[in-house]
Write a structure and sequence with these properties.
Length: 343
């Protein structure tokens, strides 16, 4: 049963880390420890907690290990309190990576997006060089690696979104570096026989960040809403966590690409108007909707892993309440409206 409202961060993170039956079943069958690289990002902490909770429910004893530089000591302590082991490591330091514990199951979550404009060399190092370090260290492991729907580029709204067999067409250096990340993983998968899955995520959302938070803040502050990128997909982060962990069931050589997003094709205008109704604000719009957008079709993943637990309408309601109550946010806008691929 979904709560009618979410009132604090503890409740939010408990819900985001609640495992599905599919995750519990998968972790009951999966052998060995799980290590999450780049666990300190937006999704990592609740995914690590979900992996731990699901393993406990499955009656499977395993280490769940989170690796990050941990700029936030609170985040590291919070993971430890929930049974997740933590290791501080700069993953670009190959010697330090060599000292990490072996694990048969690896979740690769690290990458650079925000601030990539002006730091293009670091973006390529993080997104396209780092995978080679990880593949050499974990050549005997299964790897679920995060990618992005940005590798597809803009597609016609009428087409229903990009599919996994569509040719990539990245726009901007960030998206190109993400395609580079996929190609490096694919190379080592083929040459070293590493079973992998590439998670093309587009977009995960909760109450502290995401496209709906961006829109809700603009409506609440009575700022204009840009309609240039007129349509989008989202997925409750808890469902994104669950689908990504279940992707260990789909690893293959060469890597299996998996679109992970919600089933709804959402209109920016519709979402802003619905948020405005709940906030008693009249949204202001600038620009007009284009005929293309960054959209993904996740039907194969939804058929395989199950429908999301949280529909977009429910998430929209939670976000509106959260912003009205001045709930904390991460201060990391998605820049989903960028059509030039600059972040």
């Amino acid at each position: 049963m979904l709560p009618t409202s979410i009132t604090n961060v503890n409740q939010l993170e408990a819900l985001l880390s609640e495992p599905t039956s599919g995750v519990v079943d998968m972790l009951r069958r999966l052998d060995g420890d799980i290590i999450l690289l780049g666990v300190g990002g937006k999704m990592g902490p609740t995914m690590a907690r979900m992996a731990k909770r699901a393993s406990d429910l499955a009656g499977t004893k395993r280490r769940v290990i989170g690796v990050s530089r941990f700029s936030s000591a609170h985040e590291e302590s919070n993971l430890q309190q929930h049974g997740v082991e933590t290791i501080r490591c700069d993953l670009l330091d190959e010697d330090a990576v060599g000292q990490l514990p072996d694990a048969p199951n690896v979740v690769f979550m690290t990458g650079m997006k925000f601030g990539s404009t002006g730091q293009e060399s670091l973006t390529w190092a993080m997104n396209a060089y780092l995978p080679s370090i990880i593949c050499k260290k974990y050549r005997r492991s299964r790897v679920v690696a995060f990618s992005t729907g940005n590798v597809y580029g803009l597609v016609a709204v009428s087409g229903g979104g990009s599919r996994e067999d569509d040719a990539p067409n990245p726009v901007g250096e960030y998206a190109m570096s993400c395609l580079g990340r996929e190609r490096i993983f694919e190379h080592f998968s083929r040459t070293l026989g590493i079973p992998m899955a590439l998670i093309r995520l587009n977009y995960a959302a909760e109450l502290r960040y995401g496209v709906l938070v961006d829109l809700a803040q603009r409506v609440w502050r009575e700022e204009p809403v840009d309609l240039g990128m007129g349509y989008f997909n989202i997925l409750w982060q808890g469902d994104a966590n669950a689908m990504s962990l279940q992707a260990f069931d789909a690893v293959a050589v060469p890597p299996a690409a998996i679109n992970v997003t919600g089933p709804e094709l959402l209109s920016v205008r519709w979402a802003a108007e619905r948020l405005g109704e709940r906030m008693h604000k009249a949204p202001r719009f600038v620009g007009t909707e284009g005929s293309s957008a960054l959209l993904s079709n996740a039907r194969p993943a939804l058929d395989r892993f199950g429908a999301p637990r949280v529909p977009a309408e429910q998430l929209l309601h939670w976000v509106a309440e959260w912003i009205i109550r001045c709930g904390p946010t991460l201060g990391k806008p998605t820049h989903f409206e960028s059509r030039e691929g600059t972040f």
